[in-house]
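User: I'm putting together notes for a lab meeting next week and I want to include a structural view of one of the chains we've been expressing. I don't have a solved structure, so I'd like a prediction I can at least talk through. The sequence is below, exactly as it appears in our construct file.
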Amino acid sequence: MKYIVFTETIQDLEKVLEKAPKLFADREKFPGKYPKLLFPNHTFLDTSPGGKWKGFAVVEGTPEQIAKWVTDVDGAWSLKYIPIVETALMMELHEKMKK
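Assistant: Thanks for the context. Below is the predicted structure for the 99-residue chain, given as structure tokens.
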């Protein structure tokens, strides 16, 4: 399944800087261990009052791969996974459900 992954907050920038290179290298070395990165990490500014820099990426993976990634980044990033489905597939499923 595909997911948009939002980086809600970075609790500890030092932990992120410490963990990220190892995690990304591990994902390259063992591609089946973690979700596949379909759209690389991007950053944006939340423009609401008091807004902070946030990020997002698009990944594809099994529940096990998602759980492994979440477990490994625990304490550094606060991530929010939103499942996404192609619109054409959703329309097809909707039509089937009406019958």
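A couple of points you could mention at the meeting. The chain has three helices and four strands. Residues 2-98 form a domain with the Alpha-Beta Plaits fold (CATH 3.30.70).

User: Perfect, that's what I needed.
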